[in-house]
Specification:
Layout (H helix, E strand, L loop, with lengths): L5 E5 L16 E5 L6 H5 L19 H8 L5 E4 L5 H5 L5 E7 L19 H9 L4 E6 L15 E6 L5 H8 L18
Parallel strand pairs: 2-3, 2-4, 4-5, 5-6
Antiparallel strand pairs: 1-6
Family: Belongs to the glycosyl hydrolase 3 family.
GO molecular function: beta-glucosidase activity
EC number: 3.2.1.21
Length: 190
């Protein structure tokens, strides 16, 4: 997991990177459909042909791994898709937004426009326009991210990390560096 993650953006400017994240932040918002769902982390061809949603597989979700790695004094708040007013009024140090595709295999995964499904785009807009945020994309392929890049401080392609949410946190909190590379430039549109 650590070796496959690709850093797509780090900072709204070169001089102000967001990553690695601060383990001693006072309060962190974790949001998105994929932050607490091992089935989504695993993708298709797992327990069933099309994969499963939920935590029926033994492992560590990304939010569980976040709670394990941050300071005991850091408050980690989970909200699947908070609205803008909630985000602005809570005093969060930063947000980690985990979005992506549901599990699929073969033609069931056909997506003609390759957009981020399951309300992921709305979650990014609600949070990242108001707060420093890292977006982690869980997918088996590149998806269109260009509309969201101006809003986010950092963007990471974690692909399908399987049962090891800890591998994701090892990299975003700086215990290990990013090593993943793309064989070609990430597309801007479809």
């Amino acid at each position: 997991v650590r070796k496959s993650m690709v850093l797509l953006k780090n900072g709204k400017s070169m001089n102000k990177p967001l990553l690695p994240l601060d383990k001693n932040a006072s309060k962190i918002l974790v949001a998105g459909t994929h932050s607490d769902n091992i089935g989504y982390q695993c993708g298709g061809w797992t327990l069933e042909w099309q994969g499963l949603s939920g935590n029926s597989t033994i492992g560590t979700t990304i939010i569980e791994a976040i709670k394990l790695v941050v300071s005991p004094s850091t408050k980690v708040v989970y909200k699947k898709n908070p609205d803008v007013d909630y985000v602005k009024g809570q005093g969060f140090s930063y947000a980690i937004v985990v979005v992506g595709e549901p599990p699929y295999a073969e033609y069931f995964g056909d997506n003609l426009n390759l957009t981020i499904p399951l309300g992921g785009g709305d979650t990014i807009k609600n949070i990242c326009g108001s707060l420093k945020c890292l977006v982690i994309l869980i997918s088996g392929r590149p998806l269109v991210i260009k509309p969201y890049l101006p809003l986010v401080d950092a963007f990471v392609a974690a692909w399908l990390p399987g049962t090891e949410g800890q591998g994701v946190t090892d990299v975003i909190f700086g215990d290990y560096g990013f090593q993943g590379k793309l064989p070609r430039t990430w597309f801007k549109s479809v």
